[in-house]
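Lecture notes, unit on protein representations.

Consider one protein chain, 150 amino acids long.
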Amino acid sequence: MTTLKVGDKAPDFEAKDQEGNTIKLSDYSGKKLVLFFYPKASTPGCTAEACNLRDNYQTFLAKGYDVLGVSADSAKRQQNWINKHELPFPLLADEDKTVINAFGIWGPKKFMGREYDGIHRTTFVIDENGVIEEVIAKVKTKDHTAQILD
């Protein structure tokens, strides 16, 4: 779905997280970033993915990665999801889809024979200089950490 590929500069972004803090790509300068986009907080697949990242969060930190999630959910929905599942990383409430569109992951989807527009579950691994070093389009929600770190 996305036209971004390995070696591309990650689109600069600025958006509010679940607590209303402004988060920018430049905040992660000098660090590696796992930027994961998911369709909807509190749904089974997204919860499996976020909990897999949560369970391995210390490993990410130890390897020099920060983790940041993005969806079009409201800040309140993101905060409720964080509270319920003790997610240790911020989640951007990209309700106007600025970040989602910048990364090119909004588009037509099919589910149970129905077509609609939505977020394509995609993860970008961004290096210390803001360059995309990996694009994971076929996310395994229950084993996503292995996809990222292998």
